[in-house]
Amino acid sequence: MTESETVSGSGLGARRVRAAVVGGGFMAEVHSRAARTARAELVGVVSSSPAKSAQAAETLGFERSYGSLDELLADDSIDVVHVCTPNTLHAEQAAAVLAAGKHVICEKPLTTTVADAESLVGAVGSLTATVPFVYRFHPMVREARARFRSGDAGEVLSINASYLQDWLLGVGDDNWRVDSALGGRSRAFADIGSHLVDLVEFVSGDRVSRVAATKKTVFSERAAHSGITTEDAVAVVLETVSGALGTLLVSQVAPGRKNRLYLEIAGSEQSVGFDQEQPETLWVGKRKGSMVVPRDADQLDADAARLCVVPSGHAQGYQDAFNGFVADTYAAIGGADPDGLPRFTDGLRAVRVTDAVIDSAEAGTWIEIGSER
Fold it and tell me: Quick one: 216 and 85 in the same domain?
């Protein structure tokens, strides 16, 4: 992305996008690296206390820290704010960013309730507001999508997808996300299942229409939390608008799986299989002549090739995908309309699907999602 692409049509003149971050944890680090790669000016950061804000500014390479979100939003030099805080803070903070007339990137889940997500979508107006469903930005995911968009893969028949992690495997493993007061009603599905459903719908071009789910909380008590109600694992049977059937398995207690998002969609002509822990290839299944397609720009659809930032044989991964997402967001701030950019409407969709999954698990019935969800 060139500097002119960053600012074209945005009213920013000839300067680069000026970015700020709310939060100082792991995701703030990921966002700041992506912003730097997209040639943004890293203006400032605010965290949970003045001391933590100052530390985050030094660690992440921002020009300054702020004493509060209000102070940050009063800085007229800031163009875009990255919200990287606990889930239950997203709605209020993203709304404040939009009310201040600034563009916003808000971590997922966008909000913890459908009503809050709908309110944010209604507040966007002409601003750019995006959610980092960054697995869309793996080149091989775009290649998989291209095969369904072109019709080469045929009609969607079935879906087999899972997202497995082990970082909360033991009773001594703990994090703010297990606390519903900070993470919201859902944990595993809202946190990583939302990525999975977004990818299913993005690649297939088909929407989930109804779900039947069950969930399990393995540990009701952890090192620093008791009375835990958020789920460690969720299993879902789904049906799509076109009539395809599928299964989803989401777990944060799967030994040996660090961040294994796996997606396999069977079409009437081809199947495609993508493994986020092995992101350099795409499996393409056929009745005869199944093959493994490498991340080689010369062999890929143009939309996939544009996301190849290093030559084939030099591995790309999660941070590269995140960089692509932020670069496209900044291009949108400059007036472009990048294909596949996940906006607040996509964040709202994920909250609606998450609600349906948890509703189904609690009621023990199928839950219709439909267009209104």
Answer: no
